[in-house]
Design brief:
Helices cover 5% and strands 47% of the residues. It has one helix and ten strands; from the N terminus they run βββαβββββββ.
């Protein structure tokens, strides 16, 4: 049975955002994910990792193993993308349980920037897993750009004579 686990509360990034690309990140602690879910992590689970603001473009996203996975899991494959959209746009089938601390997931061959019209989350999908994952940490990061309307940028003229 698939579960969605919201782990987005610890995301951090640059503020104020301004109109330049900026990076946000969150470290996903799989022990916390297990506790939040209430049962062992399993294939088809979704970990919500980063809150993506409305009217943003995700220019790039990825993940890094910061603490190796432990448990009985083998053949654990992680995808990174937008659930309900392209779930493996940024990472496709990363061998998470075979990775060492410091390993980055390779960018998906089908990668493309993603326009996010309404607020959403960037998610890890457990695409495959046998056994159980008990602990481990994955840092998820994304480079975003705010593309919301900048408003009226034309000059405002004032008739100072009518102010007297």
């Amino acid at each position: 049975l698939m579960a969605t686990v919201n782990l987005t509360t610890a995301a951090s990034g640059n503020t104020p955002r301004g109109r330049k690309p900026y990076i946000i990140q969150n470290t996903i602690d799989l022990a916390v994910a297990t506790t939040s879910k209430g049962t062992a992590l399993a294939s088809a689970d979704v970990y919500q990792c980063l809150n993506i603001p409305a009217e943003s473009v995700i220019l790039h996203a990825g993940m890094e193993v910061t603490e190796i996975l432990t448990g009985t899991s083998t053949d654990t494959g992680y995808d990174l993308g937008i659930t309900g959209g392209d779930v493996d746009n940024f990472v496709d089938g990363f061998d998470a349980d075979g990775a060492a601390a410091g390993d980055y997931a390779p960018t998906s061959a089908a990668y493309a920037p993603v326009m996010v019209g309404a607020a959403d989350t960037l998610d890890i999908l457990v695409a495959a897993q046998t056994g159980t994952t008990l602990t481990g940490k994955i840092r998820v990061f994304a480079t975003l750009m705010d593309v919301s309307d900048v408003g009226d940028t034309s000059a405002n003229e004032v008739d100072r004579d009518t102010l007297a």
